[in-house]
């Protein structure tokens, strides 16, 4: 297996964030909290984002310094928190994090891609 590049981890983060937003499309917070399948799928997406970010930073430690506009500690911490609290996850917290942070994360990932595409 070939070594994963930084862009591969960004792709994982982007795919998981996009999937989570797709899964909750058209729902409100109450419907989300009552749909166990969607709730667990979205929680797993958040975990995946955190795991990909953690591996990205372990493999490419300078990446966080090059891109301080992303809240790396928070992104990695969310994945760890979901793993630690898997039996006590609050659907309203996952809903809020999905609605508030994932669109921002997708925009930030696009910004990182544009930064690299311009050769900076």
Give the arrangement of secondary structure elements.
Elements: H1 6-23, H2 29-34, H3 36-59, H4 62-66, H5 72-84, H6 91-117
Helix pairs in contact: 1-3, 1-6, 3-5, 3-6
End-to-end gap? 29 Å
Backbone CA Rg = 15 Å
Mean pLDDT across residues: 89
What is the percentage of strand-forming residues?
under 5%
Q: Mind summarizing the main beta sheet? A: none
The tally of strands reads 0
Tell me the number of helical segments per DSSP (H or I, 4 or more residues long). 6
Helices and strands, in N-to-C order?
Answer: HHHHHH
Shape: globular
Spans where pLDDT lies below 50 across 5 or more residues = none
Give the helix/strand class: mainly alpha
Helix content: over 70%
Structure description:
Helices cover 78% and strands 0% of the residues. It contains six helices and no strands. Helix 1 (6-23) crosses helix 6 and helix 3 (36-59) runs parallel beside helix 6. It has helices spanning 6-23, 29-34, 36-59, 62-66, 72-84, 91-117. The two termini are 29 Å apart.
List the defining traits of the structure above.
mainly alpha; 120 residues
Offer a quick outline of the entry.
The chain is mainly alpha-helical. It is built from six helices and no strands.
């Amino acid at each position: 297996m070939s070594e994963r590049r930084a862009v591969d981890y960004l792709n994982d983060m982007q795919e998981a964030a996009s999937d989570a937003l797709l899964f909750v499309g058209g729902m409100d917070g109450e419907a989300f909290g009552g749909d166990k399948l969607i709730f667990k799928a979205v929680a797993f997406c958040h975990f995946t984002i955190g795991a990909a970010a953690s591996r990205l930073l372990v493999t490419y430690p300078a990446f966080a310094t090059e891109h301080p506009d992303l809240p790396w500690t928070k992104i990695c911490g969310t994945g760890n928190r979901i793993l630690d609290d898997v039996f006590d996850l609050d659907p309203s917290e996952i809903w809020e994090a999905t609605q508030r942070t994932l669109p921002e994360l997708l925009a930030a990932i696009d910004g990182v891609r544009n930064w690299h595409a311009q050769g900076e």
